[in-house]
Structures are given as structure tokens and as C-alpha cells.
Amino acid sequence: MDILIADRAVDLDDLADRFAVSKMTIHRDLDDLEQAGLLRKMRGGATIETGTQFESDFRIRELQDGEAKARMAAAALDLIEPGMTVMINDGSMAALLGAQLTQKVPLTVITNNAAIIERLKDASRIRLIALGGLFNAKFNAFFGVLTETVLSELRADIAFLSSPAISGLGSFHMDESVVRVKRAMIAAADRRILLVNHRRFGHSALHRMADLSDFEAIITDAPPESRTAIDRAGIALTIAPPVRQQNPDIKETTP
Amino acid sequence: MDILIADRAVDLDDLADRFAVSKMTIHRDLDDLEQAGLLRKMRGGATIETGTQFESDFRIRELQDGEAKARMAAAALDLIEPGMTVMINDGSMAALLGAQLTQKVPLTVITNNAAIIERLKDASRIRLIALGGLFNAKFNAFFGVLTETVLSELRADIAFLSSPAISGLGSFHMDESVVRVKRAMIAAADRRILLVNHRRFGHSALHRMADLSDFEAIITDAPPESRTAIDRAGIALTIAPPVRQQNPDIKETTP
DNA sequence: ACAAAACAACATATATAATGTTATTTTAAT
DNA sequence: ATTAAAATAACATTATATATGTTGTTTTGT
Predict the structure, then answer these.
(1) How far is the CA of A61 from the C1' of C16 (A)?
(2) What is the pLDDT of residues A188-233, one digit of tens each?
(3) pTM, full prediction
(4) Using the beta-carbon criterion (under 8 Å), do A130 and B121 form an inter-chain contact?
(5) Distance of CA A80 to the CA centre of its chain
(6) CB pair distance less than 8 Å for A150 and B153
(7) CA–CA separation, A55 vs A207, rounded Å?
(8) For D29, which residue's CA is nearest its C1'?
């Protein structure tokens, strides 16, 4: 998917070559991704599915930058102590962090993220408070008035938010109902942390979600260039640097 | 679990014998079941978990009477028309009905049942409103103040409730927070239907959940004997009769 | 103190999933 | 219509995950 997003199209023979597998395997994998609606198979390769603007689909996003996300999740995990009440929003980055919460039990976890709910349901020593609401398949989470109402009655020690677009010192989102829930989370938490992938910098979107100064810290894998404005504004920045692919002992950190 | 429910206790050596496996395998399996809270390991065997009175755990129940449940679900489904807002509570019976809701789309479904949420998440033409709350692993659903609060702001055309204990003209439940959510559902629906397995008749429990007269109809697979009192009280009763086990073409109806 | 039971650690077996191979069918360009 | 590349189907192979068994050691209740 990374290659496909970068090049808009991939060649089947080339993929078989790169990954050192047979063409049949590539065929099967592309079939699966087509089935999931992530690409369109063409004779000799595949192209990105039309309508999938800038990697906006969560199913694509969760296949991207797995390594960097793991680093960011680890950095976020350092801020969590057993006994805390932790709030986490929608998104694949958040889902990854959510899955690792079992390392910090006992914990109370509040989330509208369906992936996290499913994952933590049967975890021991985790009080799981699911935020209900109207299910949104695109973001794989629950939103709406119900969600916002419930959030107004809750309080968390720390909230982890993520954002698809960072521009200047603001965070943006394309969906109004998502923004409202994120804002409700910001209002319901004592400490607020923003998790943001380097790809998100320099993008904007219709709705302003928050100012970066609303957050106690920002965890990112962004390269130095993107961060100067933030540094200047004096916002704490934790960097989980993108990992050099050639390093063989990376894999041990992926779960 | 069947043996355990029948005999109240099982012997480890005996189990290894019956299933023709090593004692170590029995040890491990019993460990898993203990972990799941279904039994208590004792030296030389296991006993049924205290508090698990009469097969009360949903994980046990969902292994029982699959066929009768399918019939009851079908009867319930007849009451649902496309376009309705349907509310469904916790329980394995309810989960089975929930899974079949895709046959009546478009539909708005409101539920606190984790199995139904998971199942209907990616169903098309179903607006899924999940009731949040504190996750309860025993009942595989969400409960608590949050759930009740949210329910007070919702309204459904029809609600399907289930009950673990029917005694006389009353319905009972052992868990207070479950009762509160079920009551909130009763209050939030225009029409109310009770689904009740024949095993549940003649049992009672600490908390009264509702009077049978609160329901427009009761769907059951109970034999005539259990129902005389209900019939006399003039409550509508739909019977989905228990299926004769010897019929080989039963299985095709189980999903 | 001592058998029986429980457990841990490793070995083996079984089941499941992923990948590869080969033969056959489909496809697009001539 | 012909044909070579690509796609597919069916089966073989390999890898991985899961379940079970074995052995030796520790714990437990009498």
C-alpha cells in the first residue's frame, strides 16, 4: 500500500521481485486488498481505488508506517501509569496504542474506538468503558450526540488524541461529528497528548479540531523540518523517529 | 461443562479417561475454563464456580439449545419491519436474533450486546447505535450509569428483552446493573417482547426485572405445562416449539 | 515424610495458513 | 483468428501456529 500510494500504481512482476515471492502470492494478496476495497486490480498490476483521496481510508492508514506507529505507541505508553483512567480516540494509531495498554494494568480505559473495544474486551484487570454512539464504518468508531453527552459525564487522567491534518499550530479534521467527539475528549481529560504521523503535517481540513497548545505534549515521528514552528511555539515534542528500514533488529518491537 | 453442570464436580483422572487424552491436557483445559471464570480448579478435579448458580453464564448458555433459539429468533424476526428502530438487550438468545437482523434492512439497531455490535458493525443499511458503558465480561455487554443515561434519551419502536428466570408472572435477574439497563430499555420502547427459554421457567433470582404483563408478547419454546399461569393471565404467547433432536435436517437452520 | 497432584519446560504431533508449482483458461494486442 | 502474456484453478509443498504428550521437578495435603 505504501508503494501504491506513492506511485499511484504497482506492477505485479515488480512486486514479486521486491518481496522475493512468486507472482501467484502477489496475485492472491492483491485479490485480498481489492476485496477490502483498497485497490483495483489491472492486467499486470493494480492502481489505487478511485475515491480514496489522500489516504483517507482507515483501512489503508492502518497498513502504513507500522514501524513508526509502534515507536510512537511506545512513547505514549511511557506516560501511562497503572491505575490511571486513560481515554483514547478513533484511528489506527490509537488502536495500536490501545492494544498495548495491557502492559500497564490495572487501568480504566475509555474509548469510542471499535478496534480497541474489541481488543480489550477480554483483557483482565482493565475496566473498559465503551463510549456508545452511532457507528461510523469509515472511522471504525462511534460518534454522535450520544457519544458527546456521555463524555460530558466522564473524566480521565490522560487522553490520547490523533489527528489527520496538522497545519501551522492547529489540528484539523474533515468530519464534523468526529471533531465534536475529539473536542469532548479534550474537555474531559486532565492531561492531553496528541499523536501525529509525519505524513499529517502540512495538510489542512475543513474543521479545526484544536490548537496544538491545547496539548501537554505531541508525539510524532516527523522529521525536524516539519517541527520548527511547533518548537518555536514552545510545545513539548516527543520524537519517535522513523526507523531505518535496513536495521534488522527492528522487528522485535512490532507486536 | 455439560458434565460439570450435571454432576457439580468433575474428576481430573476421569476426564482424561473419558476424552482419551493425557492428564496434562485436562489440566490445561481446566486452567482455561477457570481463567474464563466458568469453574474452580480443586486438587484432583474441578467444581462449578460458586455464583454460577444455574448455568447462568452466557458462555455456557450460548452452547445450549441452539435449535430452539433459532426458532425463537425466527418468531421474533416476524415482528420486525424494515425501517423500524429495534432495541435488543444482552444475552446469547438476543445475539442470535441480532445476527439475523440483516434480513430486515433498512433498520436502526440499538443494543448494549457486544456480540451484536461486532456482528452488525459492517452490515450495510443498518444504523448501529451502540450503548456504551462499562463492559461486563460475564454478560458480554455494556452496563452502568452511562448505559442507563443514554437509554433515557432514546426511543425504539420495539424492544426485545430476554430473561434468565421466570417465576409466576414475574421476570427476575441476579445482577442489579443488568436489571437497571433492561428496565431502561422497557421504558424506552413502544412495544416490548420477551424472549425466554424453557429452562428459565420456575427459577427466580434476587432482583425483579419486570412483570410479564409489561410485555406485549412472550416468545418461548416452553412446553405447555410451564405456561398455564401465563395463559390464564391473558398474556400473548408465541410458541417456538423445541425441535425433536432425532430429526437430522435440523442443522441446516443453524447459522 | 511421602505419595499424589500440580506444574514447568521441552518434545512431538496435528491443524491451519501461506506460498509455490504446474497445467489450463482467459485476455488483449496483433 | 492467432498468439504470447497474464490470470486462474488445482494441487503440492512449506512454514507457522496450536494442541497434546513426556519428562523431570516442585508443591501439596495427609
Answers:
(1) 28
(2) 999 999 999 888 888 899 999 999 999 999 999 877 776 777 777 7
(3) 0.76
(4) no
(5) 18
(6) no
(7) 18
(8) B43
